[in-house]
Design goal:
Shape: globular
Number of helices: 17
Strand content: 15-25%
Largest sheet: 13 strands, mixed
Radius of gyration: 23 Å
Distance between the termini: 41 Å
Helix content: 25-40%
Length: 495
């Protein structure tokens, strides 16, 4: 049994559901007498702020594909968001293996939009990973990741927006929202989650993410910061945020592939010079015929390149049941791409095959039972749901970065330097537009005596770093180096 440190007497064994609207009415007589005075105040406060607060949570001790009990604490559950709490956001929570009471709490958002938090947990920064072996009809084998970020932090991985991963809605079967709405729902999710887990309210809070969350995450952090300034209870202990390979500005990021392609030797100097002149440095919307022809030549040169990592083979996208139309969705220029024919399955040896294993795992009945997935809510599980009716209503999140960092919140932005789709060239460009003064200029940072990337720090506690040899997403390709980067930054040490 687990009881919140505040003393609120809610029982947790295999499953717990908080509903403060009814729980308050059940507390009377001897039950009320058992509460500590501060707990009574907290419950009164929470019932007034969230009269319909519903959070369900379950402790997961065993997972199909993993031998023996999990050597870390894993919790899964749902948090209702929206006015009627029809939208149920599913999450995975992993406690820090070091010191859960003192270590930072990180809310982790993944990109897409529409990619599951499980992807980050098992492929990037979480404590588990799949054995990359051919599928044999049983749940794929899970193993421990040596360089999990949960060794030094508590991390919540959330499936957002609704109809991502195991998140669902009891109302509409189609998602009718976009950048602003999903960000507000994540903020609501976090507040409700912390109310249900009050022992983590005093932990330093960070929000982290990657890829398309470069658009939504700064909005989420902005919502949190505004709530703190307004005195919204409970007060969250927000310290900062971090973003990897972030899509930030549709024009800047969308056009950075041309100078990046030249810098990496993917197009000739003559073609780059001609394209730069004809397009006047703007590569997202051709303004004349010559610019259009030059961009076609550039695209022809990079058509066979795997945009997530230019050194790896280009393979089919990972989906066990290919759809009639499948979008890549990782970079701005590919978000709108649709293929007329289904993709073939990736072959063993491709990175996409490794990602394919998550589909087989999550669609297994024993897995869903172990994760306490509500029956009948999700049919086929998708690592990234490309068919969300999503509204891209924010073109740039640069203004949010400027606002947050000048208000005193720390920021770490990092890029895998072999990512063509969301290149460090675009990231550097929008960072320069902030006009922050340089505190420590461009220099290498190292792990085990070897250069792991390059970094520059700016005023307002703003840090940028590249990860040498990494793609999109950086921790997937360079787990040891990215763990060292995170460990140093979260501990307020230079990279």
């Amino acid at each position: 049994m687990w009881v919140p440190q505040s003393g609120i007497p809610f029982r947790v064994e295999n499953h717990l559901q908080y509903n403060f609207g009814t729980a308050w009415s059940q507390l009377s007589g001897s039950k009320m007498a058992r509460l500590q005075p501060i707990s009574v105040c907290i419950l009164i406060m929470l019932s007034s702020y969230y009269p319909r607060l519903t959070v369900s949570q379950s402790t997961v001790r065993y997972l199909p594909g993993f031998s023996g009990p999990l050597p870390f604490r894993l919790e899964t559950g749902y948090v209702g968001v929206g006015d009627l709490e029809e939208n149920q956001l599913f999450y995975y929570f992993v406690e820090s293996e070091k010191s859960p009471k003192e270590d930072p709490l990180v809310l982790w958002l993944i990109g897409g939009p529409g990619c599951s938090g499980w992807s980050a947990l098992v492929y990037e920064i979480g404590p588990l990973s799949f054995e990359n072996v051919p599928y044999n009809g049983t749940p794929p084998t899970l193993k421990l990741r040596q360089h999990s970020w949960t060794k030094i932090s508590n991390i919540i991985f959330v499936d957002s927006p609704v109809w991502t991963g195991f998140s669902y809605s009891s109302g509409s079967k189609d998602y009718s929202g976009g950048d602003i709405k999903s960000s507000k729902e994540v903020h609501q999710f976090l507040r409700k989650w912390l109310i249900a887990h009050p022992q983590f309210l005093s932990n330093p809070l960070y929000v982290g993410g990657e890829s398309y969350s470069g658009i939504t995450l700064p909005i989420v952090v902005h919502e949190i910061a505004n709530g703190i300034d307004a005195g919204q209870e409970p007060i969250l202990n927000l310290k900062g945020y971090l973003l990897g390979n972030p899509i930030t500005d549709r024009v800047i990021d969308g056009g950075s592939f041309v100078p990046y392609a030249r810098g990496m030797g993917l197009i000739s100097a003559e073609l780059y010079k001609s394209t730069k002149k004809s397009c006047r440095g703007h590569y997202t919307k051709p303004s004349n015929f010559k610019c259009t022809m030059d961009l076609e030549a550039v695209n022809k040169c990079i058509a066979g390149i795997y945009t997530d990592h230019i050194l790896e083979p280009k393979c089919p996208l990972a989906s066990p049941k290919p759809k009639d139309t499948v979008g890549h969705g990782r970079s701005l220029k590919e978000n709108s791409r649709e293929l007329l024919l289904p993709d073939p399955l990736p072959t063993f040896g491709c990175r996409e095959y490794w990602q394919l294993l998550s589909y087989y795992w999550a669609d297994d009945a024993s897995v869903r039972k172990a994760l306490h997935i509500r029956e009948g809510t999700i049919g086929e599980w998708l690592r990234c749901n490309r068919k969300l009716a999503y509204v891209y209503d924010v073109n740039s999140s640069v203004k949010y970065h400027l606002n947050l960092t000048t208000r005193g919140y720390r920021a770490l932005i990092y890029s895998g330097d072999h990512d063509l789709g969301t290149s460090f060239v675009g990231t550097e460009t929008w960072i320069r537009s902030l006009n922050f003064s340089i505190v420590d200029d461009w220099q290498p940072w190292a792990v085990d005596g070897q250069v792991a990337g390059y970094t520059r720090t700016y005023s307002n506690d703003f840090t940028f770093a590249t990860v040498k040899g990494a793609g999109h997403m950086a921790p997937e390709y360079k787990p040891k180096e990215c763990f060292a980067m995170f460990q140093r930054w979260i501990s307020h040490n230079p990279l």
